[in-house]
Design brief:
The protein is mainly α. It has helices spanning about 1-25, 30-50, 55-70, 75-115. The longest helix is centred in the C-terminal third of the chain and has 37 residues, at about 75-115.
Length: about 120
């Protein structure tokens, strides 16, 4: 699960950075505000790469997905990209857990089928 979720978060890191560049063009938003919000969100993406397998990591990832969708109020294209990344996040968590379960089953089967050499 860690690899899939981290890949999604790294993709979001770049998308948030590009959205920050687009948001700078909005005369209603100050550059300080845009880069503070974008910087915090980008930092959270990187931190979550390490926390995704810990308790609450997936929940924090969902909170980031909601914030990414909500950023569509500043950059309208982010409504679409936020939904796309939320779907990728769901797929990463869902299929990542299935892969982890399959790996655990395979490890248990291979360890039980090999006799101990004593």
């Amino acid at each position: 699960m860690r690899t899939l979720c981290s890949s999604t978060l790294i993709g979001e890191f770049f998308i948030i950075g590009f959205a920050g560049l687009v948001a700078m063009k909005d005369p209603d938003l100050s550059m300080t505000t845009v880069w503070t919000v974008s910087g915090v969100a980008m930092f959270l993406c990187l931190v979550l790469c390490g926390l995704v397998t810990r308790p609450g990591g997936v929940v924090l990832g969902w909170a980031l997905q909601i914030a990414l969708i909500a950023s569509g109020f500043a950059v309208p294209m982010m409504f679409f990209l936020g939904v796309v990344f939320a779907a990728l996040w769901w797929a990463s968590v869902h299929y990542g857990r299935k892969v982890d379960e399959a790996k655990a089953r395979f490890a248990a089967q291979s360890s039980s089928s090999t006799p101990d050499a004593a």
